[in-house]
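Can anyone check this?
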Amino acid sequence: MKNASAGVYGERRFMLDELSLYQLAVAIPTNSGNFGVKAGYFGFSDYNESQMGLAYARKLGDKVDVGVQFNYNGVQISGYGNSSAINFEIGTIFHLTDRLHAGVHVYNPVGGKFGKNQEEKLASVYTAGFGYEASEKFFVSAEIEKEENQQVSVNAGMQYKFLPQLMARAGIATNTSNVYAGVGLFLRSFRLDVVASYHPQLGVTPGILLAYNFSKKDVE
């Protein structure tokens, strides 16, 4: 990152108000590395999950980038009260060539337990994948994801930039049989994405993203 950025995202999973998801993220680059803040909310008044995260990342030379994020997680259930847990996640990107990149991400390897007796635990998730920039316009990626107590999922996607101001992307997640597609519009320092995913049994999930880059430069 070269400039500070902020973004908000919202989606309504399977067109249900009770499964609404909202996220906010802010990232600030400094000479000592990049800092980020993330906030999320999922659910409705009777049941909801919330998260606050603080992240730090930096380059280790020209070939390796590393980052870590610490999260505060909350769960609120009407009639049962609320509970919280703290966990962390860590990731690394390896720039194998100028166009080929590989990455590893680990979410909640230890800790992340809810309740007075620590009986409920956030799932651990391990991910490894790669991304290839075939050209300045076309990017393709694939990853293998293993969530605790779930089957292995292969997630793959591609992105194509038709114009400097317009791009489209599509992909699939095999574990849930979800397919998704989206379009992105760049206008000066703003970016607007409209996305949708489809599950064969549960239906459509629409989403929208609005991001702002605090650079004064327009899209080239």
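Reply from J.R.: I decoded it. Residues 7 and 211 are 4 Å apart (CA to CA).
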